[in-house]
Structure formats: structure tokens, C-alpha cells
Amino acid sequence: MRVQYVLQEIGQGLRRNLTMVIAVIVSTAVALVMLGSGLLMWQQTLHMQDYWYGKVEVSVFMCNQEEVGKYPNCQTAITDAQKQTIHDTLIRTPHVQTVTYENQLQAFQHYQQMEAGSALAQDSTVNDMQDSFRVKLDDPNNANIVEGAVGGLPGVQSVQDEQQLLKPLFTFIHIAEYTAVSVAAIMLVLAFLLIFNTVRLSAFSRRRETGIMRLVGASNFYIQMPFLLEGAVAGLAGGVAASVILIGVKAFFINHVVAPHLASVQFIGWSPFAWIVPSLLIVGVLMSVLASAFTLRKYLRV
Amino acid sequence: MIRFENVSKTYPNQARPALREMSLEIERGEFVFVIGSSGSGKSTFMRLILREERPTTGRVVVAGKDLNKLSNWKLPHHRRLIGTVFQDFRLLPNKTVYQNVAFALEVIGRPKGQIVKVVPEVLELVGLAGKEERMPNELSGGEQQRVAVARAFVNRPMILIADEPTGNLDPETSVGIMKLLDRINRTGTTVVMVTHDQAIVNQMRKRVLELDQGTLVRDQARGVYGYVR
What we know:
Shape of chain B: globular
Number of helices of chain B: 7
Order of helices and strands of chain B: EEEHEEHEHHHEHEHEE
Strand order of the largest sheet of chain A: 2-3-1-4
Largest sheet of chain A: 4 strands, antiparallel
Distance between the termini of chain A: 19 Å
Largest sheet of chain B: 6 strands, mixed
Radius of gyration of chain B: 18 Å
Distance between the termini of chain B: 30 Å
Largest interface: A-B, 18 and 22 residues
Strand content of chain B: 15-25%
Order of helices and strands of chain A: HHEHEHHEHEHHHH
Number of strands of chain B: 10
Shape of chain A: elongated
Low-confidence stretches of chain B: none
Mean pLDDT of chain A: 84
Structural class of chain A: alpha+beta
Oligomer: heterodimer
Helix content of chain B: 25-40%
Radius of gyration of chain A: 31 Å
């Protein structure tokens, strides 16, 4: 096979159908940008889960004087014996890693720090606060085990799972992620159809050459190679464009515009790009080569 | 070289078969005319030899190979045994005479050295020496057909199929093309020529196969055109 002949054929083919080739590159790029954003958002949620779930705890709040009689387990304010029982039960509960005790005074100090200056903080007293155990689990998804173990013990006012507070945020990101991947799927179908049409046009405009090649006994591979490579070049261009767009969005929009305003959110670094960019290039090339091969089976029969 | 055994061909959605129970044998080095009116099955006959179509029933054997058993993968090699010439020449308009002939060798992966050697030889054979760099539209019809013959023959096929090669040419030019085909036949190449040209058939006195509505109605060793009843 002559490299020069193949390159020349690809160049001619791409120039001949320039408008269609541009359409293929753009739609492939959009499809891959969507796919890439879906993957990046997925990485982002994993990253945030690691970060937040490392911090979240299950809090076991115990009855203070004011709650006596208002909650079923609060017959009296918490006693030392009850504390001991709750602590021992927590220690024996599976998946529990550490149990730390926070008394009313510490809780009050934390509260004053967090809500400094607010009217609520100024009005509250040490006695409004509750004693609590802060329970750290090996996996935050096991929070209901703690609830089951100590939720019914005397002296326990409530069990609160902080993970529940993060749920809406993660749900939102997951919806965005699935939306991006669905749009990517639709765009990939669109790109497939465009490639189908482009290759068909290309095969039609070169039917004289391919007809003679068939007659003189050129192999299918030799006849189809320029078309397949044409598709591969367009797919690769789409993949490169998509990667450039994603890197640009991350470098300028996320790092310089969004991140400074959302200090509490831990954004992913560059490491996922190391596999997402090659994946996008491979998907772009594979998809267009498959689409070309599929078209050629129909329109370039031997 | 070419053997048809009870070959019938019916195209999809057509009631009447294009070829009906055809049996014949063409020996190596023969020169055969195939005649018959339009729709008599001449094209189908050629397409079966090239295996562009498969018979509905029966067997086509070319160069000892049963084409029914030939895999698609080996089809290009089968087609390299056969050179083909058409009424409309089918040259590539953006390539020179030399490039048109060389194209046939390039696309089957022949080395450059061989191409440079054999293309001038075959152009000499067809009488186009010195016109290598002309474009097809600068040539007369007869010359264009010579280029097409050169392209069909440059790979030295065992069989040359010519589909009305003189159909677009005036009688004088046609004689030139016939002489060329005769010369190629004398190198041992089997020539199968489909034609409507009575004068040529009558002049050459070669074997004549006549088709009528898909049936072989005449197979005559030194035949003439027209009905001998």
C-alpha cells in the first residue's frame, strides 16, 4: 500500500465534502464535550464524596433539662449511667470507627463560633445545648445502623445523620451528569448519521475510481482504506476539539471564575483529564470508523 | 477456461429468467463472440464470469475454480485473472494515459519498479507509444479505447472480456481495435467479446454464441452474424 496514494485520497475526499466534514467534526465535538462533561461531573461527585464523607459524622444528641417529657426517651435529663450505656453500645456497634463526646459547654462554644454575631447565638445559653456523641463510621452510608443501635435507648433525644444534609447537592450533580451523558448519546447518534451521509457522498463522488479498482481486482481493504481513514481523521478532529473545549472550560471558567466564588466546593484537579482526553479521542475515532465501515458495507459492495 | 453447467439466473422480483439452463465451455486461448438482441442475457453472462452475480442454479467454473465456492475475500484475486473493456471506455478523466494504465497496477499493490517497466510495454503494444502524457479528453475514441485495452491487459490476465468495445467507434477505427484484440488473443489470452457489429463478426470468422431471451440458441465454430436457418 502506498502511503502517498492514501494520503492524497484522504486529502481529496476531505476537501471535496468540506461542508459535510465540518458538520461531522462539529457534531462529534459537541457529542464528545457532553460525554466528557458527564465523565468529569462523575469524577467531581466522587471527589466531593471522598472529601465530605471523610468529614461527616452521625450525631447522637442526648436529653437536656428542657426536653424532659417532650421526647419519648427523655424521662429525665441524661444521667451518667445512661451516657455510659449509650457509649458502650456505640463502641460495640459494627462499622463504628471512633466515638467522641461533646458536652454542653463545648457545644455552646462551637455554636457561638459558628453563629457569631447572630441574635440566636446571643440569646442562647449553655443549658440550651445538648450533650452528644459524635460517631465516625467507616462508611457514611451505614448511618442507619447507629440509629437502630441507640435510637431507642433512654436518654437519647435524636440521632442525626449529617450525610442527609448533603443529599440534595449530590442529587443535583447526578442529574446534571445523567443529562450530559444523555445529550452525548443523542449527539453521537446524530454524528453517526452525518458520517453515514458524508461517506455515502464520498463513495458516490469516487464511484468511477472504485468501480475500476473493483474490476482490476483491488482488495476491499485497499478500496475502503481511504474512506475509513477519512472518517478517522474527522473523528479525531472532533475529539481534539472536544478536549480543547473541556480543558479550556476547566482552565478559565472553573478555575478562574467559579472556584473563587465557591470556596467550600473542592473542585477536581487535572488528573482525570489524563484518561478522559484519550478516551474522547478513542471514542471519536472508533465511532467514525465504525460508521464509515457500516456505510461502506452498504454502498461499496464487491 | 470458462465452463457453464446448467446455469440459470433469475433476478429478484422478475418472473422471466435472464439466463436459462445454459451449458457451454470456452477453451484457453479461444476467441468467442457473444451476440444477441438487448435483453437476451449477454450482460448477465459476463457478470456471472466476473462473479458480479451468482447463478440461481448451476455452476460457473473459471480457470478451474467453482465461483459458487469462491469466498468474497478471494474475489479480488479472481478478478485479476480477467481484464475488462467497456463500450464507454471508463477512463479516469483526471489522469493521463500513463496514469490510467498504471492505476490498475498500483491498486493491486504492484511494486513501482514493475509498473515503470510494464506500462510503456503495453502502451507500445496497443499503439499509443508517445502519448503517455495525454489526458483522455485529448484523445480520439479509438485511442481512448486502446488505453482501456491497455489497462485491461497490463496485468496479463488469462481472460479478456470486451463488452461492445466497438459500439462507440466508426467502422475503420473498429477494425483497428479488432486487430488489437486479435493480437492479444494470439498471446494466448482467451477473449470473450459481446457485440452487435455484424461486419466484424462476419469478417473474423470466430466462434459465435447467440443468446435469445436467456437461452443459448446457437454455438457455431466459425460463425457469422445473422440467422442461419
